[in-house]
Amino acid sequence: MTTLTADVALSSLSSRAEYEAALDRLREASLAYYGDGDSPIDDATYDRLRQQVLAWEKERPAEAVPDSPTGLVADGAAPAGDVPHTTRLLSLDNVFDAEGLLSWGASVQRRLGRAPEGGYTVEPKIDGAAIAARYRDGHLVQVITRGDGTHGEDVSHIVGQVDGLPEQLAVPATVEVRGEVAFTQEQFETANEVRTAHGAQVFANPRNGAAGTLRAKDRPYRLRLTFWAYGAVELDGESFLPAGGTHAQVLAAVAAAGIQTTAASPAGLHVVSDLVEAQARIDAIAAMRAELPVGIDGVVVKLNDTAEQQSAGTGTRFPHWAIAVKLPAVERQTVLEDVVWEVGRTGVLAPTAILAAVEIDGSTVTRATLHNPADIRRRDLHLGDTVTVYKAGDIIPRVQAAVPSLRPAGAREVPLPEACPNCGGEINKSQERWRCAKGTACALPALIEYAAGREMLDIDGLGKTYVAALVESGDVTDVADLFTLTTEQLMAASGSAKRAAKLADQVTAAKSHPLSRIFCALGVLGTGRSMSRRIARHFGTMDAIRQADAAAMQEVEGIGPEKAPVIVEQVAALAPVIDKLIGAGVNMSEPEESLAAQSAGPLTGKVVVVTGKMSGPLEAYGRSEMNALIEKAGGRAGSSVNSKTSILVAAPSTNGKLSSKAAKAAELGVEVLTPEAFAELTDAYLT
Ligand code: IVH
Known about the structure:
Layout lengths: L5 H5 L5 H19 L8 H17 L23 E2 L9 E2 L2 H15 L7 E7 L2 E8 L2 E7 L5 E2 L9 E2 L11 E8 L2 H13 L8 H10 L9 E9 L13 H10 L13 E3 L2 H13 L8 E8 L2 H7 L9 E5 L4 E13 L5 E12 L2 E7 L3 H6 L7 E5 L7 E5 L24 E2 L6 E2 L3 H13 L11 H10 L13 H8 L2 H14 L4 H7 L7 H11 L2 H6 L2 H4 L9 H11 L1 H9 L8 H9 L6 E4 L12 H10 L3 E3 L8 E3 L10 H9 L2 E3 L1 H7 L6
Parallel strand pairs: 2-12, 7-9, 20-21, 20-22, 22-23
Antiparallel strand pairs: 1-6, 3-10, 3-11, 4-5, 4-8, 8-9, 11-12, 13-14, 13-16, 14-15, 16-17, 18-19
Helix pairs in contact: 2-3, 11-12, 12-13, 13-14, 15-16
The chain binds 2-(butylsulfanyl)adenosine.
């Protein structure tokens, strides 16, 4: 087979040879997309490749091959069985944005000769496998896959295994219900656990898993699936369906009989009167995608009135009366470059996958969660593997599975650590999640020393030895314990009453530090001093920080979609520590003046870069004190001079030569201030 790289697939096809190579690639990938194979490309690349082929065929209709996959239901990939469908089981045409939806709307108007009067329905496009379920006298008698649209496979063996598709209805109806079978997120996790327990490979993704499960008749285990109906047709000339009604009424009748429909999903089925409202619903569904119990890959808009559906008609593969508005892919393939291990607060060794950068749902992903060593082995991950990576909304991306057919020669299994990556000590491997044998004591001393640092809690008498003693004795199990230490405990650790008294004073003083310092002392990954100040000033109180979801967290300057959920998750995990801090009377808010500077300080909205040695009133200021000063005055510290820089603080050149930062500032016309002039500007904030 001619292999096209994903990059080639993204550019437009320019020759017959490229067109043919793209067809080969599409045929191979569609087998996996609609079946249960290993896909050599991910969904986003698949969709783009398909668009390329379609564009080429549209431009040169005479040259398009007659059996092009783009002209077949399921791109010609789904195995056709021998059961004839009552009426063709069609696929849907796709658009990718609001503009596409409007042009579909225009085509519907052309076909009807007027604007639709019955409104539109908007419902989720469940990312699973299509089936037709035949009920006779209220009894589920046969389940058939879509196949090639005219014939499908009998997969009645799944009866009894599918939530939402009861064997017996509440009414003695004879009807064929059509819809999507899929794994909910929860069922998918369980399915993979069951599979690995049986020595089978984990599913590459829920859709592949559902398609495979439908067709696998002799597995030694049964996996639960879920059904969502999106339509129904007459069977044996009989139907309990409302005649001449609406799509919403059809689904309501199906639901009343006891079958789950798309209307029952949290995304719901909404009837709207125009496409502007439809688009608003699409946006709302897209926003709730991460919280949905099942994966969706788009939103389907249909004409609600079944008579209008009939007038709009049906093409060879798609109905003209419905359209799928695809959402950005949340699953991509990329290369697993490395696995790094970090030791959490509780001593758990957490593996993180380092990935070749890939764009997923609008953000660049370079790291993803892996669970534990057993899971890495179950997924048979090798360094250099092409892996499927998922990112659903706010959830931290995770590595799902490797694509074994793309494994480079000589790739080695992901190495597992032999010693604790933090302290070099022994690892306790008694559970699936490995831990440092020292447990909390492994990472804790370093965290407590960090928290006691000058710019956090400022308990400067608390050095390495005392911290080690406090952790060793079990008196300190987290940062909050520092605030409830008794004089006796401090004496035992420091060995003297005088030292203990001094430490106790510092601890008492630390209780009234601004929130930014307290927050920083928690040691949340990715929130150093500067970031902690930004978070504290943005939210004002610990309560507000705790209430922030990933979207709210992203409003803080410098926190992107990759970092936000990690911070939110860690803050949530720190709940017991934060509660203890509150209980000990530690300040949980940012002082008014620092909040005021945020909106009305001399540097509000300005990015300040500092270079060289400071002088005059700022002589004693190191880089970190300068950063704190800039932020106190409402600005933001930058590290390099660029078009966003507002001020460069630099001492004048003494040898006539400009530093590289000063030269860049001159080139870009950035204001340059001497340390003295800057001190004057920020006078109110000097300490
Ligand atoms: S309507 C004639 N509605 O997506 C109407 N399809 O990519 C055809 N799908 O073949 C389908 N959710 O398997 C419809 N709410 C929904 C859907 C849905 C998922 C699937 C269906 C279809 C495929 C097209």
